[in-house]
Amino acid sequence: MTHQTGLSWVFLQFASISLQLVDFSRHWPGFGVWVLIFLGGIALISWTLCVHKPGEFSIRPVPKKEIHLITSGPYRWIRHPMYASSLLVMGSFLMGHFSLLAFSGFIGLVLALVHKMKIEELFLSETFPNYRDYMRISSRLVPGIY
Description:
Helix content: 55-70%
Number of domains: 1
Strand content: under 5%
Oligomer: single chain
Order of helices and strands: HHHHH
């Protein structure tokens, strides 16, 4: 797996988010349940960033060289809380205003994040001998489900 592969998924991730944001900004739906899901996603992002040391976080699926395995905070239950929060936030926008453009952006985001998770987990399994044990006791995105 090359670094270039990881960067292409990062590009797809941000292109998909941009597609949804452009569509959403043109059709502000007012307030609804989507706002609560959006706020839940923002809370998860904040909690996740709180358990990271400065400079440790990366948007690329290839982990930085000098990192340690985090299993506290939201990582206690899910291995990819930033990806989960991205899906919550962007899914809330889709709920607030459904369109084919926004739906396409969300599907692109899901594909990018699923592939990024796979790449990241391969690297983490090679980097940390106990990562496979951690995978058995945690979920990828949704506790107890996936």
